[in-house]
């Protein structure tokens, strides 16, 4: 699995993975200040059981 | 099998995409392919247990980055080309049972930022001439998956509706020296009765020439050509007016209101489109709580829409349902 993380700007980040069939998938995450939720709430985390492959972090 | 076939009668390309016949059709909620993959659950399209917003290449694309060669040869009368392009899906939320209208305005704000990023990345591809962001919502407009999502088609040509808008706006600019949509903005602000909502950066209105009873357009007050031209304030204001319009739609008949949302930007072919003005168009098919507007003989066969209602009346109806938006940030 390939995984690439970039800063789009200070508020948004994205992480790109390549799925088994070669398609890309981009996960967007945002600064906690945009959530409108308490900071203690869980952020999306990679699933260890995933079958996709990740690109390297940049 | 997939290819682009030219219609010489209308001067338009048609995509054949026979693999799309196999795509998932209205699965039960427990087998939604767009939900996160639950631990121990069946593997969905998203191989992670949670997400905020996700964009990915469509599993059943009409256009592909590296398309196969056409299965049929091009002739003088029938040009054929590979169906090159990109089709993406954007998941608005991991929650299967939400809609864009029901999401907090903060989530819509995030989505607008994702749209900006996708637009910029896709238009940088050398074979892309137009990036079209849209949403089909509701079975009435033909959705096959209920999970809240939108799509992007990045085309290798400027599609016909945009081409027509470009011709009209170019002609208007040449004749009057002004931007057509800037002048429409002024006219609607003076007339007032077709305005549905307004903030510092945008107006939402039912156009004078609306084809659907609740057809609503959102127009930036500044003369901008694409989402990537927006300031931070405009990005936030777009999220806010979208939230207001979508909630007003849902309040009309107390149903999750179906619509097609079409984001109209300048082309991405490198030419100058300074005369063009970015805007969003909504085409909702409902004309009453129990009746749909169908594209029948005149609309489908001749291209002339018949609207059974007056935009001024419908704008007042919708305007009365617009509520202020409460931001948490």
Explain the overall architecture.
The complex is a heterodimer of chains A (58) and B (329). Chain A has 58 residues and is mostly beta strands. In chain A, 0% of the residues lie in helices and 36% in strands. In chain A, strands 1, 2, 3 and 4 form a four-stranded antiparallel beta sheet that branches. Chain A starts with a strand and ends with a strand. In chain B, the strands form two sheets. Chain B has a nine-stranded antiparallel beta sheet, with helices on both faces. In chain B, strands 2-1-4 form a three-stranded antiparallel beta sheet, with no helix packed on it. Chain B starts with a strand and ends in a 10-residue tail after the last helix. The mean pLDDT of chain B is 95. Classes of the chains: A mainly beta (58), B alpha+beta (329). The interface between A and B is medium-sized, with 30 and 28 residues.
Fraction of helical residues of chain A: under 10%
What integer is the average pLDDT of chain B? 95
Proportion in helices of chain B: 25-40%
Q: What fraction of residues of chain A sit in β-strands?
A: 35-45%
- Categorize the overall geometry of chain A: elongated
N-to-C span of chain A: 15 Å
Instruction: Provide the low-confidence segments of chain B as ranges.
Output: none
The chain-level structural class of chain A is mainly beta
The assembly state of the depicted protein chains is: heterodimer
Tell me how many strands of chain B there are: 12
Q: How many separate helices of chain B?
A: 6
Profile the largest sheet of chain A: 4 strands, antiparallel
Largest sheet of chain B: 9 strands, antiparallel
Portion in strands of chain B: 15-25%
From the spread of the alpha carbons, the general shape of chain B counts as: globular
H and E string of chain A: EEEE
